Every structure is written in C-alpha cells, then in structure tokens.
C-alpha cells in the first residue's frame, strides 16, 4: 500500500448525492474523484421523481432541460398514499411548479454524464473499506479490480447510502427508530391500464417509469411486519396485489422486486473534521412523499461550494460548519415529517383503527383542499420553503430563503436572476443602479459576480431590497433596503467578508 495524494476531495458513492456533489466541486475547480463499489451503474430505480426545488437547483446550473426532456411532469405529488387529493404544486412560486417523473437510474445517468463532461473520474468497482483522518487530510483504503490502493485527499465525503462505511469509519452515530413496517415494490413490463386504475383506487401506487415499464408499490396489511431483509417472490407480490385490490394487474416478468421499510435515522453530525456526509449516508426514512433522493441533491448543492471554498482557501472561518448547521436541521425536519406521513399510511392498514383512520384521512383530504394548507405542505415537500436561519433578528426577511427567480433587465438584455448562477459563483445583485458595477451589466471577480440590473417583475419577497448577495446554491446570504451608497458599501463589505473571506483559512476546526 502507498499513499497517493491524487485528489483534493474523495467522494465515496456514485448515487445521486455523490454525483451532484462531484459536479459542484469540479465546477468550482476542485480536483475530485468518485469511487463506487458497484461495477456498473444501478439499472433499477428506487426513486422516481424530482421535486420543484431539485429542478430549480439543476436549473441554476443550466441542467434542468436535460432532465425535463428525459421525464414527464405531473402537477403535484401524493402527501401520503391513502389520501385521495395529491398536493398541488402548480400554485408554487417557481419556474418549475410540478414534479418530474424520472427513474432514479436516468437521474444518475444524466448526473454521471455531467460529471464526465466536467472531467471527474468515476471509478466503479472500487469500494472504500477503511478511512483515517489527520489534521491535513484523509486516507482511504479502496479495494478495486487491481487490488487495494490508498487514496489521500484533503477531504472525504460519504455519499455511500444508508449503510455508509464512511459514516461508520468516522465514528458518527446514526440514531433513530428501527423498522416497524415494510412494503413491497415491483417494476414490471405490463400495460394493463384498466386494472391499474382499479389498483390506484385501492391505495396501490402505480406509476409508469418508462415505455413498457410500470412500478407497483403495495402495502399488504397481512405482510406489514415481514422484515425488509426477506426477499420478495413474484407469487407473494401477486397475492399481495390481489389482496389489496382484487386483481394482480397481470404482472409478470419483474425487472425488480424489493422490500423496504420505515427505518428512520439521522446522523448525529454531518461533519467530523475532514469527513462529511450527504444524502442517505446522513438521513434515511420511509419513502413516503418521495423526499430521500431530493433531500440528498439539496445536501450536495449546499455542501459543494462550501467545500470548494475550504479547499480553494476563500472560506471564512466556520463556513464549512454551516453545512451541518443548515442541512442537519433540514434532515431533522424531513425525518420528522416522514414519520407523521408514514402514520397516515399505516393507520388505515391497521384493523384496530378501522373507521377512525378513514375519518382521519377524510379530514386530511378536506384540509388539503384549503389553499393555505396545500401551500404549506407543498412548500415543505417540494423543499421550496427551506430557509437557513441567519440568527440576526434585524436581517432582511429574504435572508436565508431561496432567491425567487425574478425577471431582470441589464444592459445586455432580459434575464431571470437564476441565469446568473450557472458557474456556481455568488451573485451580488444591485437593483437600484447603485453599486460598483460597470453600467447595467455584470462582471466577475473571484467567487463573486456583480450584476447591476432593473427588476421588471415586482416580487413581494424582495420587500424593498436594493441589493442582494445570492449564494451559489441560490439562497440569500444578505439583503438590504439601504439606499445611501456609503452606508451600503459598509454593509456590503461586511457581508462579503462574512461569506467570502480571502484570508486562506478554511475553518476546519479541531480534529478528533
Ligand atoms: C422503494 C424506494 C422508493 C424510493 N422512492 C423515492 C422517490 O420517489 N423519491 C425520492 O426522492 N427518494 C426515493 N427513495 C429514496 C432514494 O432512493 C434515496 O434517498 C437515494 O437513492 C439516496 O441517494 P444517495 O446518493 O444518498 O445514496 P445511494 O443512492 O444509496 O447511493 C450510494 C452509492 O454508494 C455506493 N457505495 C456504498 N458503499 C460504498 C463503499 N463502501 N465504497 C464505495 N461505494 C459505496 C453504492 O454502490 C451506491 O451507488 C426511495 C427509496 C426506496 C427504497
């Protein structure tokens, strides 16, 4: 074995979280390598959707069109399977007010292609088996087709799923609740549409993944306590389908059969020294509301630019720790919400609750018909309502929220504000002609692009803002209503120093 300091960041796991993280790091000029123990990319798909915030994040980098072209949009998503009324995303304030039906395998394929375009090596058939860290970096023992190599990197990120070897090597606990209920999923080459409708009416999830491939998810009251480790047979699947809806929908030739459960866990920290976690390595839960993959993509967008700043030396002290501060809170909110959603799924299947469970679901359905209730839950499920608290009570209300994609005009034409985030820099947006930009246009210095523009669409969230500093992940770092150029310059200087210190410290903190 020998140490090879051949990469700045080692990403363990080429699932959706690892691939998007690698893209973000490479975009920021960080040498990044991805290892994945699987020899080939996954063919089967656990997830089948992208929610609005994930689509927005892809759009920030100019990638949404590739994904939209590969899938099919639907106007909303089910909050919990027994409810009759899906959440309505069309009312959300976004250019992507829908969910995209897209098999996880396609999402991974598109992300892997982007990573390759950015020059990231993805080494498949390479399993990280041990990790050690010291004050200057991380060493990983990786077993590959040519034996074991030791890779050295400044940082390592575990994007290696719920059983994360990286999390275990870093000694990070994964507390939560054990599995108490399971469901079965099957992907079949079938097109029995009449029976599919009937199955849907009886609470079976039926979704067309691609031409000639349909997904069924069944929760059989008599098989709810079967452990997820027990394999599913075609006969069991057919029997459960028949029990659920009186027909087996003619399913045959399964491409994939699996059993999954409601184990819910959240890593006690998303960072220990130079080792970080993202995606399922940091949080797992029942896939109700389809939030796991989406939350992992949002972790990756939050972490990518912060880690790049630490590696490149422009991270102010503590910046990298805000990854845990911001995303752990989101992980807690998602795992809490899914536990409540799971109960809505479980109660109607539990004989003891019988009619009471039906009444509860009817009540929920009625509530979802109220605009504000729909908006609240759709905001949470879509992740558009994610706000990273600034801790400053005097901060502009937009601080920490996602920047709405307002229309702008500059000397160079009409834009949406998200268009300026393509290359992963901060955007300093002057909205009233003040500031140090060169006319109504934009210029770039280091990690910040300055844009002087006029708003051609009023947006209530801007609430009189004259200047906004937008982070590379599209959240607002700082905003002000100040109009005088001197006081504003002082405020701006403080904000820029807080977010983009060029002193070269990385805020890595003490190592264990
Ligand atoms: C039935 C089901 C349906 C779901 N539906 C949805 C949905 O509709 N929407 C949604 O958002 N989420 C859904 N999810 C959850 C979603 O699939 C996961 O949240 C998502 O796959 C997590 O992505 P990830 O990149 O964090 O990890 P993973 O996709 O698990 O990828 C981890 C990768 O790490 C690799 N790896 C593991 N250990 C090592 C190691 N030691 N060395 C190297 N490589 C390693 C693995 O081979 C794998 O490729 C569903 C889950 C299930 C079970």
TrEMBL record:
Pfam families for the chain: FAD_binding_3 (PF01494), Rng_hyd_C (PF21274)
Q: Can you provide one Gene Ontology molecular function annotated for this UniProt record? A: monooxygenase activity
- Cofactor(s) in the UniProt record: FAD
Q: Which InterPro entries does this chain map to?
A: FAD-bd, FAD/NAD-bd_sf, RIFMO-like
Key words of the record: FAD, Flavoprotein, Monooxygenase, Oxidoreductase
Question: Which residues does the UniProt record annotate as the domain FAD-binding?
Answer: 6-336
The record ties this protein, via PANTHER family, to: BINDING MONOOXYGENASE, PUTATIVE (JCVI)-RELATED, TRK SYSTEM POTASSIUM UPTAKE PROTEIN
Report what the protein is called.
Monooxygenase
Organism annotation = Streptomyces luteireticuli
